[in-house]
Amino acid sequence: MLRLSNTLSGRIEPFQPLEPRQVKMYTCGPTVYDFVHIGNLRTFVFQDILKRYLRHKGFGVFHVMNITDVDDKTIRNSEAQTIAQLKTFTDRFTQAFFEDCDRLGIEKPDRAVHATDHIDDMVALIRQLQSGGYTYEKDGSIYFRIESFEDYGKLAKLDREGIRAGARVDVDEYDKQDARDFVLWKAPKNGEPRWETPLGPGRPGWHIECSAMSMKYLGETFDLHCGAVDLIFPHHENEIAQSEAATAKPFVRYWVHGEHLIVDGEKMSKSKGNFFTLRDLLDKGIQPAAIRYALQSVPYKRQLNFTADAVRQAEASLQRLQDFRQRIETEALPRGADHELQSGCKAVLEKFEEAMDQDLNTAQALAAVFDWVRQVNTALAAGRVHDGDGSAILATMDRLNRVLPLWESEDSRLDPRIQSLIEQRSRARKARDFALADELRNRIFDLGYLVEDTKDGVRWKKR
Ligand code: AMP
Ligand code: ZN
Fold first, then answer.
1. Do 199 and 142 touch, CB atoms closer than 8 A?
2. Which stretch of DSSP H or E encloses residue 324?
3. Closest-CA residue to 63 (of 190, 224, 292, 283)
4. How far is 342 from 209, CA to CA, in rounded Å?
5. Is 28 in the pocket of ligand 1 (CB under 6 A)?
6. Are 360 and 50 in contact (CB under 8 A)?
7. Model confidence over 372-385: pLDDT tens digits?
8. At what angle do helices 416-430 and 434-446 cross, to 10 degrees?
9. What separation in angstroms does the CA of 64 have from each of 104, 111, 216?
10. 162 exposed, middle or buried (CB, 10 Å; 0-12, 13-18, 19+)?
11. What is the DSSP string of 220-259?
12. Which protein residue has the closest C-alpha to ligand 1 atom 12?
């Protein structure tokens, strides 16, 4: 049985969704004011592994992710004065985000929901809080009075004594542990985008976005809510206050938070300037598969120190795995099957699951895979691997690959430059710019590849 660290209880607990075989999962998505950095991507990779593993265990997963396309940072960076200008700015980074996810093999959520498409839901939730007596108004802004919610602080384990009654905070993010009444609805400022609503003109605070959108798509109580540890306070603490004050029901059953990616001992972050994006790394010629490997090889509950050395090790590990696969695929194997190799395939899956069941211990799961690879390589050298074993071994790799992508598919073997040209061409076709699409096809052709448009999407092959 899968056991997960639950920040709410402070314990590692057996995971059991409300509906026996269906998991409802919400993850806080990116704030689309810039390209995401690889610290952000570490968190999205951990959530992807969790989702894939839940499926491997036989659960259906319904995954909703928000796109924060209105908050202090998007407004500051865009310098937008209207909603339309803000949207033009954020759309570009939303698209870039999904491209980055795609390169790293992070699956799309079932629903990616934009905050700006849900202002009405947020307004309705704030009105519900108003009628429950949880709010007050000051200068056109509406605040949540944390004193009115008895459980405030239960996620972040805040000391109730430390809560500053009556102190207000207007910004979306603030210092750890400094609990204050937070803003639900912000009065309009000159020259900022605003919505005209029954609450008056203005825009939502960041926290209300996630309460409104998660409950809309997943119900008032749902199974899993994830993010990195920096979201525990204030963001997730405030989400609990808003949601539970409104519904009087438990909001989320398992809160699962990943540790940070760090560089030189410090959290990678935009504000510190110590960050790089996926694009920065790809431009240096690092393969996306190596980055994915480096991000998934450290269990999510441990900090991940991102270094050039870690990337080199990831490249070497992937190469070993790839060589192994190639030998199994291409060597002429004698007919028959070997009992020991067949049970080895079962054993590696068992050990892999045993490790993943323990709060997604990916390091231990990978160690089991490498042990197995070593055993099979020894058997290969001794001529003990038969054709029947070969197909069992390939099938085992495919099963492992669905949880932790390790063996490259044809797609990820493609040079990122060509991949990007193919994507540009698809966009051109969508925009009905056929002249540009043809020109891109020719450039791709000159680089040695043919692209075809089929009913299942774009295909490519080597000339
Ligand atoms: P943001 O776009 O800032 O809302 O962040 C998107 C996700 O990345 C959130 O789950 C954050 O908690 C997470 N995150 C931010 N910095 C890091 C980091 N250095 N390592 C891991 N996750 C991070
Ligand atoms: Zn959120």
1. yes
2. helix 308-330
3. 224
4. 51
5. yes
6. yes
7. 999 999 999 999 99
8. 160
9. 19, 5, 10
10. exposed
11. SSEEEEEEEGGGIIIIIHHHHHHHHHHHSS--EEEEEEEP
12. 228
Residues 6+ apart with CB under 8 A from 455: none
Quickly count helices (H) and strands (E) in the chain.
14, 18
CA 301 to chain centre: 15
β 141-144/11-14 pair status = unpaired
* CA 285 to chain CA mean position, Å: 24
Phi, psi of 334 (to 5 degrees): -65, 155
30 C-beta closer than 6 A to ligand 1: yes
- Go through the chain and tell me how many residues it has: 463
Q: How many CB atoms lie within 10 A of CB 196?
A: 9
Beta bridge partners of 186: 203
The alpha carbon of 77 and the centre of ligand 2 are apart by a number of angstroms equal to 20
Q: Whose CA is nearest to atom 17 of ligand 1?
A: 39
Buried-state track 337-346, b at ≥16 Cβ within 10 A, e below 16: ebeebeebbe
pLDDT band at 177 (very low <50, low <70, confident <90, very high): low
Please give the pLDDT value at position 165.
Answer: 67
CA distance 57 to 403: 10
> Ligand 1 centre and the CA of 345: distance in Å?
37
Does the pLDDT of residue 154 top 90, yes or no? yes
- 96: Cα separation from own chain's centroid: 14
Cβ contacts of 365-371, under 8 Å, gap ≥ 24: 365/404, 366/297, 366/317, 366/404, 369/321, 369/400, 369/406, 370/317, 370/320
Residues of the chain by 3-state class (helix, strand, coil), percent to 5: 50, 20, 30
Q: Give pLDDT, residue 410.
A: 54
Q: Are 87 and 117 in contact (CB under 8 A)?
A: no
| Adjacent-strand bridge partners of 228 | 258
Confidence band (pLDDT; 50, 70, 90) for 458? confident
At residue 449, the pLDDT reads 86
When pLDDT is averaged across residues 97-113 and rounded to a whole number, the result is 97
